[in-house]
Amino acid sequence: MNQASFRFYAELNDFLPESRQQARFVHPFRGKPGIKDIIEALGPPHTEIDLILVNDSAVEFNYILKGGDRVSVYPRFRKLEIASLTNVRPSPLQSIRFVLDTHLGRLAAYLRLLGFDSLYWNQSSDERLALISHEQKRILLTRDRGLLKRNTVIYGYWVREENPGDQLQEIVDRFALREDIHPFMRCMRCNGILQSVDKETVMGRLPEGVRAAHDDFRMCPECRRVYWRGSHFERMQRLIQDVLDRG
């Protein structure tokens, strides 16, 4: 039986039992395991990791762990550029797009509200979500740690918060999205791009009170849902402002 010591930093401790948080600990192992497999067995998914140091040298996920190795594992660096050092960070995405698991429907609607391309279905298999994330280069957002450990998932994030409003704030902060917010351009129901329409075009689909009070309308070409600046618009404005104020 061999042993190696591990230390996980910052938010990676969210995946560890309390006895192993913020401390170096010894982990026994057999054979010649890849370091990625050992790290994920200890808790953190590979999508959460930005840098692995073994005996003070950066290694890749396919590094074969050896007895006596001293391993340090780091999450994303927000203020320090380590591109020349890290061997595990995937290439940067040209655009930020998401796919969300079945438990994050409200978060998906909120991200769409802010203008972010966010795929969501209330029923979808883990295999399908992982495949879409891989093929379309979308960040997979999930509360399921195991989903992020699938080898096909390159870009992913485990959502810590439980309240949808707090989840939205978490994602905006985690991916530095504040400068990219373009609200009210996507359908909150299906992710389609909204288009301006004449009032006469949608007149037959409007409640009587809306017909008299509003003249500015947008419609989703995908699901045909109609939007106008009613009380829901004001509530959504407050939500957006809250995200900006709390950041």
What descriptors fit this protein?
8 helices, elongated, alpha/beta, four-stranded parallel β-sheet, five-stranded mixed β-sheet, 18% strand, 247 residues
Q: What would you note in describing this structure?
A:
This protein is of the alpha/beta class. 28% of the residues lie in helices and 18% in strands. The chain contains eight helices and twelve strands. The protein has a five-stranded mixed beta sheet, with no helix packed on it. The protein is elongated and about 75 Å long.
Record the SSE blueprint:
Blueprint: E1 2-8, E2 25-29, H1 35-42, E3 51-54, E4 57-58, E5 70-74, E6 98-100, H2 105-113, E7 118-119, H3 126-136, E8 139-142, H4 145-148, E9 156-158, H5 164-174, E10 195-197, H6 199-202, H7 208-213, E11 217-219, E12 226-228, H8 231-246
Parallel strand pairs: 1-5, 6-7, 6-8, 8-9
Antiparallel strand pairs: 1-2, 3-4, 3-5, 10-11, 11-12
Helix pairs in contact: 2-5
